[in-house]
Give the backbone structure.
Amino acid sequence: MSVLEGRRVLLVEDESMVAMLAEDMLLDLGCDVVVAMRLDQALAQVEAGDFDLAVLDVNMGSTRSYPVADALFERCVPFLFATGYGLEGVEPDYRVVPVLQKPYQHAQMRRLLEHLLTCEDLPRKGGSNGGGFNCGCVGGHADKGGGGYRADAAR
């Protein structure tokens, strides 16, 4: 049984085809998925829901998903960003958050989500390491050029 079985995941993705693909992958991993395709929907879901994890598309049309990230930080819900631009597609203040490179790949998504659930220290905004996060596993990869944990082979 996977650590992901039965986990409730908020998926924030504004492109319907991409959202369906990611939702299918999460369902295959045994997750219970709630999809939000707009920023206001995502914020309402965070406020109302009890999530174990979240996957946030960075670019939501003309806006970004950072308000959702901030709300998840406040609730200590682990999450990752998904973007086709990799770490460079994330604002500097958020670059220690794990990044899943688009297009979504099943093995990478699984590996990164499992990491989020098993990491001893959850990422916290404004941590003691210069405004970053208090997660040893994130900081442990910063010296390898990535600045944050990556599920792909590039880390």
